[in-house]
Amino acid sequence: MPRGTLEVILVSAKGLHNSDFLKKMDPYVILTYRAQEHKSSVAKGAGSNPRWNESFLFTVSDSVSELNLRLMDKDSFSKDDFLGEAKIRLEPVFVEGSITETAYNVVKEHEYCGEVKVALTFNPEKRSDLGFGEDESNIGGWRESVRNY
C-alpha cells in the first residue's frame, strides 16, 4: 500500500436535492479518510449548486482505499440535514498520481441526488530504496571500495 499525502480539492456540487423549503440551502462537506476528518466551509445561501474551491490534506499510511464525502445542509435552529454522500475509490490516484476535476454521484438511501466535483493528487512518501540507509555508495547492496596498492 502506498504511503504519502493525499490532496483533495473540493470544487463544487450541483443538482443537490433542496432540504430547505423557504430558503436556499447552506451546504458543506465532511471529508473522511480513515480516522482523519476535515470539514469544508459552509456555502451560505448557495442552494443546490455550491462552490467551495478548498483544499484538504490527508496522510495515507495503510490499506484504506476510499474517501468518503458527506454533504450536509447547515441549519441554525435544528440538526443539520444530511443531503447524501459520495464514496471515491483511491486506487486510480495512487497509480496515476493525480486525477483531474471529476464529478462523483451523491447518493442518499440508494438514490441519486446530485454530484460533487473533486480533484485528487497523491504525493508518495520519499523513501530510500538503496537497502543500506542513505549512503548511495551501497547501491544494489555492493559497496564500492578503493584499494591502495
From TrEMBL:
<feature type="domain" description="C2">
    <location>
        <begin position="1"/>
        <end position="103"/>
    </location>
</feature>
<dbReference type="Pfam" id="PF00168">
    <property type="entry name" value="C2"/>
</dbReference>
<dbReference type="InterPro" id="IPR000008">
    <property type="entry name" value="C2_dom"/>
</dbReference>
<keyword id="KW-0479">Metal-binding</keyword>
<dbReference type="GO" id="GO:0046872">
    <property type="term" value="F:metal ion binding"/>
</dbReference>
<protein>
    <recommendedName>
        <fullName>C2 domain-containing protein</fullName>
    </recommendedName>
</protein>
<dbReference type="InterPro" id="IPR035892">
    <property type="entry name" value="C2_domain_sf"/>
</dbReference>
<keyword id="KW-0106">Calcium</keyword>
